[in-house]
Structure prediction request, 335 residues.
Amino acid sequence: MRPSRCRVRLHAALAAAALLAAGRPARARAQPANAGVEGGAFLLLPVGARAVALGQAATADGNSTEAIFWNPAGLASLARGELALYHYDAFFGSGDAIAIGVPSARLGTFAVAAYLVNYGDLAVTQGNLGPQPVGQISPRNVELMASYATDVGGLAAGITYKLVQFRVDCTGDCTNVPTATGTTQAVDVGVQYAFGSLRPVVVGVSLRNLGFNLQINNRAQADPLPTRLSVGVSAQVVRPAVGVQGLDARVLADVQGALLEGPFSAVTLVGLESGVGEALRVRFGYAFLDSNARGPSVGVGVKFGSIAFDLARTFNAAQDVGDTEPVHVTFRVIF
Prediction:
């Protein structure tokens, strides 16, 4: 058995994902292969084609179940019930999520979601049997979420409880293969305030991934979750006349920084969205992250009756880690 080879491949895949997720400088590649992995860096991988296309400037956005991943206060503006499926492909693997949100005029909005990051399967081989696989290692990240949001006048507030897990499972002959499971809990909290009628402006603040350390092997190796504080604004800069179906446009901008991880260092995220009503939306963005995940993004959204489809693609600076540019797809059913 050659478990060391499997271990190296596993750490390489997860460390590459953590590098892009955590917004760390390129020099982080010189750290140990598992740096930042056990701490739940996957929580910073963006979810939702709409937010991704807008450069991840989503703190002041809402009216979609995507808000459960960015700022739970945005769920308060959900006008109707929504069931959404999220998927993305990247060089390190893929991510899938499902979310459902149900608004109530009296009780506020309730939402739940499940999120899975799949880093691919690694073959286990034995030296005396050659390259023939005898088992399979499956590293995964899992997140379960429950949210509540409500608003009073122009002020909205929301909270999300999160159950976070990192696991490495093995099937087949796994005698000398390292497996692990770590589980922890966290919360997201956020507020949004909307003002102005002719040119509405929304200001949002969110604190994400505030929780307990994620322990994989023992307490000494437990790592903190990637806590992030974001402040954002969304402004309608072009709006058609009342009762007229015409072109509109809005701009979004976020300032985001890490908490509980040393000095506060902020990055900027910007986005632009335009279209005609909800039928067709075109989006552009740029994430000024301090890592190889920085770069532009584009996307489009269409809606036919109660069915909506969003597509986004990013073009990050990480040219040396793979050929697959992240592609995000969102399918929503409004009810």
Q: What stands out?
A: Residues 3-22 form the longest helix (20 residues). The domain at 3-334 is CATH 2.40.160.40 (Porin). The two ends are 53 Å apart (CA to CA).
